[in-house]
Amino acid sequence: MTRGPRQATSYADKARLTAKPGANPPAVILVEPQLGENIGTAARAMMNCGLTDLRLVDPKQDWLSEKAVGASSGADSILKNARRFDTTEVAIADLQAVYATTARRREMVKTVMTARTAAADMRARSDAGMKLGLLFGRERVGLTNHELSLANHLVEVPLNPEHSSLNLAQAVLIVGYEWFQAGYDGPEAMTVLNRTQPATREALQELFEHMEKELILCGFLRNEAKRPSMIVNIRNMLQRAELTLQEVRTLHGMIVELRYGRRDDRPARQPGFKPEDDEEV
Ligand code: SAH
């Protein structure tokens, strides 16, 4: 079969084909991360979500250690390009909107957005050319109220109120995922067809006719009064399967072999089969 225009064969491929050119992804700022491994897994989550700008405020362990690089699982370019800052203020100085993530409601007069709403908000601002940042806190104690006050908005991933605190990299992944999804305009469901194509109406019609002819011959559709409604039911059943051309061919082959056995096995083995009924023999 000849291949048509380039087709997506996976969601990742689809994402590549539909990625918005010029999207300006937010920087990820980790404030005093304690473990190199968490920096590595956060970098991995960033890479998954198309985020590249990693900024570290006074990290407590080396982000290029073997452990950190190993944990990044191939996202080491993000670790190598990460920048270190002494304070959060300096790390975010060039940004125009900052979203601070937190697992807990604080006693503060500030908008708290879900990650999904924040992602839509960030997309709108990034499309308008703004430089954005996402602030993440320390593994043990999160962000201080002072650090939260440096941000425009708070972002909370709504989760089980009894257990809402995420591991650092998981938080980066969920917030990053929402960012990525907000820019994804591919299909919400897709059949991976590989090299085959959906069956044409003509191919399906031929299959129906072939199958119905054989079902009449073998006696399955012997009741003439019920035959039209049975045919409609069988057609509907096959329509729901959204058959590919390859599957239509397979079904033709199955019908032929059920009737004749293997080709070198002819003549027919069907009970009640009369060879003179069959113009194809
Ligand atoms: N024990 C800390 C949690 C730290 S988890 C606390 O109670 O604040 C490390 C970081 O992951 C947090 O500072 C925050 O940036 C992010 N995070 C964890 N859970 C989150 C959630 N449910 N919503 C948004 N961010 C979250």
Molecular structure report:
With 281 residues, the protein is of the alpha/beta class. It folds into two domains: 18-182, 3-Layer(aba) Sandwich (Alpha/beta knot); 201-277, no CATH class. 42% of the residues lie in helices and 10% in strands. It has eleven helices and seven strands. The protein has helices spanning 11-18, 36-48, 66-72, 76-80, 88-91, 115-127, 145-149, 168-182, 201-217, 227-240, 245-260; strands at 27-31, 54-57, 83-85, 97-101, 112-114, 132-136, 153-156. A seven-stranded parallel beta sheet has the order 3-2-1-6-4-7-5. Strand 1 (27-31), helix 2 and strand 2 form a beta-alpha-beta unit. Helix 2 (36-48) packs parallel to helix 3, helix 6 crosses helix 8 (168-182) and helix 9 runs parallel beside helix 11 (245-260). The two termini are 29 Å apart. Mean pLDDT is 88; it is low at 1-6 and 273-277. It binds S-adenosyl-L-homocysteine.
Principal-axis shape: elongated
**Amino-to-carboxy terminus distance:** 29 Å
CATH superfamily of the largest domain: SPOUT methyltransferase, trefoil knot domain
Number of spatially distinct domains: 2
* Bound molecule kinds, no repeats: S-adenosyl-L-homocysteine
Number of strands: 7
Alpha-carbon Rg, integer = 30 Å
The quaternary structure here is single chain
Strand order of the largest sheet: 3-2-1-6-4-7-5
What percent of residues adopt helix (DSSP H or I)?
40-55%
- Give me the strand/helix succession: HEHEHHEHEEHEHEHHHH
Low-confidence stretches: 1-6, 273-277
